[in-house]
Amino acid sequence: MKKLILLGVCLVFVIIVSGCVQETSPTQNTNNYDGSKEVSTPSTSQQKSVCGDNTCSSDESQSTCCIDCSCSTGYVCNPSLNKCELEKPKITFSYQVSANPYSVSVLYAMPTETINKDNPMITCSVSNSGGVASSVQVKTKLGGYSDWYTENIGTVNKGDNKQFSTTPRVESGALSLTTDTNVPLSIQLIYKDSSGQEYKEDYSKDVVIKGRNTFSWAYPELTSAWVTSDDPIIRNFATESTQGLAPAYAQDDIAPAVKRIFREVEAFGVRYASDPNGPFGDYLQFPVETLSTRSGDCDDMAVLFAGLLSAVGIKSGVVLTTGHAYTWFEANGTQYSLEGTMLGYGVENIITPLSQRLKENDVVVNTQQEWNSGIKRINLPTPPAVSVPSISINLQNPKSRLLVIEGVVWDIDIAFTNTGGQGYRCLTVYNTDKSTGYRRNEYVLCTNVPGGSSTKTVTLDGDAFKEYTFGYYVNRE
Questions:
Q1: DSSP bridge partners of 39
Q2: Do the domain assignments include residue 157?
Q3: Start-end of H helices in 178-285
């Protein structure tokens, strides 16, 4: 009996164990007809996601698996850390410097906008294949002759390619350059990423800057930069030349003032000479240089007289024509030409109505308008020394003589004292009728007066003067 019970318990145990093995076994072996065995795996209802399978499953996110789940805009996945990080800008910068050399006068006097429009010094390209680049700037500098000049580009997004032109400005110290000079051009590219971190890249290249007297026909309006009416020497010369005329230069006094200035320049010894420095228009002297050298070609004379006339408030400018240049001025609403190359031949034929001289392709430069538009006058940092005429006049005591027919007459000594450079004065001496007080017996005296603290005394023959009260006035012309 006990044996039967024990046998039954063993059978039950075997049955239970067999059932457990069948439930936990992952595979089943099936005998095929050829005697081989086939292993099969039972299906499961759900598999766990795996990071890196290129599928962003519901239980994955940017923070747990950025490899499968893409990062937000502006961020990229770091696969080694499996973490989204800020996308840095990937900037490609290139630049091209113009092959045309620039004169230091162009860089100083011309508005940058004009240069960049017509003939920029530097053409740049900024492209970005990475994250957003903000506050993008390109700065340029020409050696020690300028401060940093900044072009603000703004934001360069991913895929952008921005192109622009820039030209650095120079300071007045650069006007000391008189010959072609190699100058280092420095360029800085500055930008920030989305976190505010700043990046800076530096580039450099030598460029040739031409001397201050180099003039280019590409900018005919640039002649107004040479019309230096605010130069103290030019202003003093013009003021000294026009003593005695109305300070505000009424319209009727403009033509006399022009002739006075012309005569003063003529007496100072300035004469026309062809330009030994190159073809017409390539080399242009500044007015103070022409007074210093006492010579110049047509374009030198044109800017000299335009500067002198402007210095005393006369509206004037320069006319550029084929192979020639001359001054124009306005009086009583009419424009006239002034031919500066006639120095040494008097004033008879120097003034002509402008309408009679203008040709179809002539360029009339209105200096005042060009100054107002942004062109700067070029005053040399170290101008040459020029001794401006400074002439005083003194009528000395008359000396009487007895003539057989006329009776007593008076000789008059007129002393011209000049403490400056050689100049010119033209005056009228008169005597006054004692009984009526009217002027009478006027005598015109014009003379060149040597410079160098000299005194020139001119004696007027007293045949016409029979009274003791004398006076003079400086002629209008």
A1: 29
A2: yes
A3: 223-226, 232-241, 251-268
Give dist(CA 474, CA 387) in Å, integer: 22
* pLDDT one-digit tens code per residue, 231-283: 999 999 999 998 877 654 556 678 889 999 999 999 999 999 986 655 545 89
- CA dist., res. 180 & res. 53, Å (int): 67
3-state secondary structure 10-45: HHHHHHHHHHHHHHHCCCEEEECCCCCEEEECCCCC
Please check whether residue 42 lies inside any domain of the structure: no
**Residues 325 and 356 occupy one common structural domain:** yes
pLDDT digits (tens, 9 = 90+) for 45-69: 556 778 888 888 888 888 888 888 8
Label residue 387 left, alpha or beta by phi (over 0 means left) and psi (-120 to 50 means alpha): beta
Which pTM was predicted?
0.78
Condensed to tens digits (0 to 9), the pLDDT of residues 199-243 reads: 999 999 999 999 999 998 888 999 999 999 999 999 999 999 988
> Which residue do the tokens 């500044």 mark?
286
Q: Which residues pair with 40 in a beta bridge?
A: 28
Question: Looking at the domain assignment, is residue 9 inside a domain?
Answer: no
DSSP conformational letter for 240: H
